Amino acid sequence: MLTLIRPALVLFALFSIVTGIAYPLAITGVAQVVFPAQANGSLIARGNGAVGSTLIGQEFASVTDSPAYLWSRPSATAPVPYTSFNADKLTGSSGSNLAPTNPALIDNVKARIDALRAADSRVGFVRPPNQLIPVDLITSSASGLDPHISPAAAEYQLSRVAKARHLSDAQVRELVALHTQARQFGVLGEPTVNVLALNLDLDAHFPSAKGPAPLSSPTNRINE
Fold first, then answer.
1. Contact 44, 197 (CB under 8 A)
2. What pLDDT score does 85 carry?
3. Is 177 helix (H, G, I), strand (E, B) or coil?
4. CB neighbour list of residue 10: distance below 8 Å, 6 or more residues apart
5. Residue 100 — very low, low, confident or very high, per pLDDT cuts 50/70/90?
6. How many other C-beta atoms are found inside a 10 Å radius of the C-beta of residue 30?
């Protein structure tokens, strides 16, 4: 019996050390050397700490301030504004798999449309009649943590943001272009705009152009 148990225990200990300690340490070390930013969460630093991650969508401003910022794709956890993890509100990522015929999905879309129109009205922006709303501004992401929107969604919002900040559309459009990521290798995926990085740049380049009370950082915490 001992001759059967001893090899099993030795192999168990050996593979535990190799796969549970040596391999994770080696991969962690390589990642820290080769891809340090990505390995540490792709964090965006401002001042003495991180204010967000390029990989996680988050609420950026209060309802009063929101017209002066571009909105992320809505979260599955709330119709609007975007809500990822927030310890105070007890919200977090959740699924958004509602059927097209589900009344809850229709109600959520209507609420998001109303919120977009209310943001326009709050800054006195008159939108061209019958302008179509990009679908990613009124439907939620699968995880509720999507940090990107389409260039069309950014274009739809930039006139409102420009008016709220007393800027020209061209000034905002220039920053949108800087934060637009092309298809990977030119063929994979679709072009995207990182909303958090763009909003931070808006505050950095036009700190005196904000209308309502300024925010120094996003209000949501990072979901650890």
1. yes
2. 47
3. helix
4. none
5. confident
6. 11
Residues 162, 176 contacting (CB under 8 angstroms): no
Please return the burial class of 204, using the count of CB atoms within 10 Å of its CB with bins 0-12, 13-18 and 19+.
exposed
- The predicted structure's pLDDT at residue 212: 37
Bond into 81 cis (ω within 30)? yes
* pLDDT digits 0-9 by tens, 9-59: 889 999 999 999 999 999 999 999 998 888 887 787 777 777 777 777 776
Distance CA 20, CA 167 (A): 55
Query: Which amino acid, one-letter code, is at 121?
Result: S
> How far apart are the C-alpha atoms of 35 and 28, rounded to whole Å?
10
Tokens of 11: 């192999």
Beta carbons of 68 and 207 less than 8 angstroms apart: no
Scan for tokens 């390995």, then name that residue: 39
How high is the mean pLDDT of the chain?
A: 78
CA-CA distance, 33 to 4, in Å (whole number)? Answer: 43
Q: Which residue carries 């943590």 as its tokens? A: 145
